[in-house]
Design a protein that fits this description.
Structural class: alpha+beta
Helix content: 10-25%
Number of strands: 8
Largest sheet: 5 strands, antiparallel
Distance between the termini: 30 Å
Bound molecules: cobalt (II) ion
Radius of gyration: 15 Å
Number of helices: 2
């Protein structure tokens, strides 16, 4: 298990357009495992490689604590519907806001062996996919917030 430092808003790397993954080797597998450890340690539902300092098109999503989606070179090829929900981000601590996202998504990409894969996801999983894929293009959820969300501070 290896934890990586999570890059915070304000660091340039979060704003870069990440490069495609072209080599599917043990190094990629190690990056995926480290990202997984870092995501779970931080109680995140997703993480993108730029958040651990790697400008490659790699992201993970796990919204239920069980099924882990590995997204490598992901591309949204279809989307439909609209939902508005509260988002946060490991790189933007203590900030939450309402963001509009599609309800259903079809995403093409590759697995860690380089094989082409396709995902059909909906609901909150679709939100997390969009959020993480945005990271690969240097976009943060705060760029898309339509309304701030302030949880009751007394509950903390
Ligand atoms: Co994020």
């Amino acid at each position: 298990m290896a934890l990586r430092r999570v890059v915070k808003d304000g660091e340039d790397i979060l704003r870069f357009v990440a490069k495609p993954v072209t080599v599917f080797d043990d190094k990629l597998a190690n990056v995926l495992e480290d990202m997984k450890d870092t995501m779970f340690e931080s109680d995140g539902v997703g993480i993108a490689a730029p958040q651990v300092g790697i400008t490659r098109r790699i992201a993970l999503v796990c919204v239920d604590g069980e099924e882990i989606f590995e997204l490598i070179n992901p591309v949204i090829i279809e989307s439909s519907g609209s939902q508005i929900g509260v988002e946060g981000c490991l790189s933007v601590p203590n900030v939450h806001g309402y963001v509009e996202r599609p309800v259903e998504l079809k995403v093409a990409g590759q697995n860690r062996q380089g094989k082409n894969v396709e995902f059909n996801v909906s609901g909150f999983t679709a939100v997390a996919f969009c959020h993480e894929i945005d990271h690969l293009d240097g976009v943060l959820f705060t760029d898309k917030v339509i309304k701030d969300y302030s949880p009751d501070k007394s509950k903390k």
